[in-house]
Amino acid sequence: MKKLFLSFFTLLMCLTVIFALSACNDENENKDDHVHTPADPVRENEVASTCVSQGSYDEVIYCSECGEFMYSEQKYTVPHSDLTWIEGTPPTCEDEGVIGHYHCPVCEKNFAYVDTINGGLLYEGYFKEIDSVKIEATGHNDIIDGYNGACTVCGDPITESEGIVYSLSTDGSYAEVIDYTGAAKRIKIADTYEGVPVTAIATAAFRNKEISTVIIPDSATTIADSAFYGSSVTSIVIPDSVTTIGFQAFRHCYSLESVIIGNGVEEISAYAFNYCSALSNLIIGNSVKIISREAFSECNLSSVAIPNSVISIGEDAFAKRSLVFGESNCPIRYENGVGYVDKWVVSVGEQVGVRLRDDTVGIAAGLAGILGPQQPSKLRTIIIPCSVKYISNKAFAYCPHLTIYCEAESQPISWDSNWNSSQPVVWGYKETN
Question: Per-residue pLDDT for 37 more than 50?
Answer without folding.
Answer: yes
